[in-house]
Write a structure and sequence with these properties.
It is a single chain. Helices cover about 35% and strands about 15% of the residues. The protein is built from 13 helices and 15 strands. The strands form four sheets. It has a five-stranded mixed sheet. The longest helix has 16 residues. The N and C termini lie far apart (about 40 Å).
Length: about 350
């Protein structure tokens, strides 16, 4: 049963033409950055910083060592304990007066520009979280500068300092922990197949033989496809060569008949299916993945601050309110995604 959507959005996104129109809007919007007010309040720390919040080169090396000990089933448990003690990274953000966040702008209900919203402001589950982090650091949820970041540019944007963090449906993995720091997990999902309702594809199985599958460059979906193709889990005849910068581009390729299926996070696939009634999820999720907020290695004070925000976000009901607003209609209230994942710290 297809999820219900607000009538104005439904009218704007109905059918393949609606998806193409939204994709065109997203491409045009890539040239713009949403700039919000930049004043500078300062919140007092609740305890003194410890040595782990210095952000020094030594801290980065210690984080790297922890990442080297990471296992696939505990990558989400490698983050630092919460604190609002502050440190050099948080101080620099407060001195600047705004938080710079890399986000998506074409993932429906996660981070997107609603064509029916005349203000042009970004909306979605990830956008709500970014506003909450800005509020906790700067005292004002609107003191955030959003930068549209393609999937394959998330890590480079953090490492180069273009953004303070990325809040963009980014899965915590051991390999990524060697390149960036992550918060505790804020969402649980898994990889899933999206295909036309009329397709004979039944899921991530032998029915993908001879099929063309699209995934985003730099995504965990492509990593799984590539690894499974090498070890024979995926049929040898499955074509996984089509990769795109952003997930919505896969949906457009599916629309144009250039691919037969899309593999992406189930949470994103559900939102894509909600954009067009002719596609559906095929089979269940075949992995377990946790989204985290990604930050620069060594920015331990910022990681701890974000983890404190996530703790409060879960406890005060704001996480659930955001889920109900953006995701409940497509993912439901009975799925594993409907409650925030528990946080375990190293």
């Amino acid at each position: 049963m297809r999820a219900r959507r607000p009538r104005s959005v439904q009218a704007g996104l109905r059918g393949w033409g609606g998806v193409g129109a939204m994709a065109a809007l997203c491409v045009l919007a890539l040239a713009f950055v949403l700039l919000l007010p930049r004043t500078q309040p300062h919140s007092a720390p609740d305890k003194a910083p410890d040595k782990a919040t210095t952000g020094s080169g030594g801290t980065a090396r210690a984080t790297q060592a922890k990442a080297d000990d990471c296992k696939d089933d505990n990558a989400q448990d490698q983050s630092l304990a919460p604190s609002t003690a502050g440190g050099p990274t948080v101080s620099a953000i407060r001195s600047r007066g705004y938080l710079s966040v890399g986000v998506d702008q074409n993932s429906y209900n996660w981070g997107y520009r609603n064509p029916n919203n005349s203000s042009g402001e970004l909306e979605g589950f990830d956008i709500d979280l970014a506003h909450r982090i800005a509020k906790d650091i700067l005292g004002d949820a609107d003191k955030v500068q959003f930068r549209a970041i393609p999937t394959n540019e998330r890590i480079p944007a953090i490492r180069s300092g273009r953004v303070d963090m990325v809040v963009r449906t980014m899965t915590i993995t051991c390999d990524r922990l060697k390149q960036v720091a992550f918060s505790a997990p804020y969402f649980l999902t898994g990889q899933q197949v999206l295909a036309p309702k009329t397709s004979a594809i039944t899921g991530y199985d032998k029915t993908l033989a001879g099929k063309r599958v699209c995934s985003a460059t730099g995504s965990t979906a492509y990593d799984h496809l590539s690894a499974d193709k090498r070890d024979g889990t995926l049929p040898a005849s499955t074509d996984i060569t089509t990769t795109v910068p952003n997930q919505l581009d896969c949906l457009v390729r599916l629309q144009l008949g250039e691919v037969d299926a899309v593999v992406t996070d189930g949470a994103l696939a559900a939102s894509q299916a909600a954009q067009d009634p002719t596609v559906e999820l095929k089979g269940g999720t075949f992995t377990k993945e946790y989204y985290g907020v990604a930050m620069k290695l060594g920015a331990d004070d910022l990681v701890r601050q974000v983890n404190r925000t996530l703790e409060n976000y879960r406890k005060d009901g704001a996480w659930k309110q955001s889920y109900d607003k953006w995701l409940s209609a497509t993912l439901g209230d009975g799925s594993g995604s409907a409650t925030p994942p528990a946080a375990n710290y190293r």
